[in-house]
Amino acid sequence: MIPQHGSVEISRSRLAHNLRLVRSRVGNAAVCATIKANAYGHGVDLVADLLRAQGVQWACVYSLQEALDLARFCPLKLLVLSPLVLRQPSPQLLRQILEWGGAETRFTITDARTARCLSDSLAAADKPRHWPVHVQVDAGLTRMGAQPGEVAELVKLINGLPGLRLEGLFAHLSHGDVPGHETVERQLAVFHGAADPVKRAQPDVLLHLQNSGGALHVGDAGLDLVRIGIALYGLQPSTLEPIAGLRPIARVTAPVLAIHERPAGTGVGYGHTFVTTRASRMGVVPMGYADGYPRVLSNRCVAQVRGRDVPVVGRVSMDQIIVDLTDVQGAAAGDEVTVISWDADKENCLDRMADIAGTIGYELATHLGGRLKRMVVE
Predict the structure, then answer these.
(1) Residues 6 or more apart in contact with residue 67 via CB below 8 angstroms
(2) If you count DSSP H runs as helices and E runs as strands, how many of each does the chain have, helices first?
(3) Domain co-membership, 182 together with 262
(4) 213 and 313 co-located in one domain
């Protein structure tokens, strides 16, 4: 039986290559892998194991629910980037986290009330431990975080509350993907101005700030951790300022389900947005916008069959695309189609597809659908 779905191949060697590239740029800082949104669509269960095998010990996710979903199988220390917001003690929350195996989960704290409620929650839950927390600093992104001038008081409060242990301070760059941007040095200075006094008083506190662009463009910034997301997956923080050497780790393939031979003048797909101009062979491929192939790429991209580029023709539907196989000698049902290539020079690599679609590789990667079978390859 020809499969009715596509597959995502995740390359172990390409991920290892990207990690080596990052580590060569960031001095002694450890890598904290960003694996939110199902590891940017790549499959967090597979990616977490590959990261651990490469010596990565830290990872971050966006939400507490993501952390709880991962806690039972993820071998990494997990930092929840979205700040915890408590307005009253919630001992049941902590019991749930521990029941789900989330003892290695780290919370982000940005306000005093939440810190007090978390401390009270630990006391009410009767958990005799010091829960590690990180303080986020708003160094200029204007999104989340304590104001720099508030950090010292918040740290003092956390250090005095029973059950809490300050483990880290962090911020996020607004223009890390633009080398030499004026905001980068300014935001580094703001962060270090707030964090360095804490580091001098508590040398074990971990400082982390960079995203992929910041880490690879700035390099060693005197930090303990670097949070790396898109670069791990081999995609560009910005295709306007490409980073040499990154290798996409994902390739999406799907089989040719059927081939239709049609004369010139035949309309193809919904709305007949493509009409054959010659006798043609049209291949049906089970990969559509429900699987993350953008509808906006209708009649605008290519795939590969038997080593040749073939145009994607007609309107992308929910479950299928059509490829023009007329010029591929011997093409047959069951042939493998490379729908998304991990060759960064190909028109159908994620970054170039994103450029055509007017978006970014992050968005296309995170849209890779759950119907796709994910597997690790070398």
Answers:
(1) 61, 78, 80, 102, 105
(2) 11, 19
(3) no
(4) no
- Give yes or no: residues 184 and 281 share one domain: no
Query: In total, how many domains does the chain have?
Result: 2
Asked if 270 is an active-site residue, the reply is yes
The answer to whether 10 touches 42, Cβ cutoff 8 Å, is yes
Last residue of a domain, one of 233, 262, 288: 233
Instruction: Mark whether 36 is an active-site residue.
Output: yes
Reported as a single tens digit per residue, the pLDDT across 257-283 is 999 999 999 999 999 999 999 999 999
Which member of 62, 233, 270, 346 is catalytic?
270
pLDDT over 90 (residue 102): no
Closest CA to 18 of 239, 216, 218: 216
Q: Measuring CA to CA, how many Å separate 6 from each of 257, 260, 286, 310, 372?
A: 11, 20, 6, 17, 5
User: pTM above 0.90?
Assistant: yes
Q: Are residues 256 and 221 in the same domain?
A: no
Same domain, 200 and 73: yes
State the residue range of the domain holding 261: 250-377
Active-site hit among 36, 40, 233, 293: 36
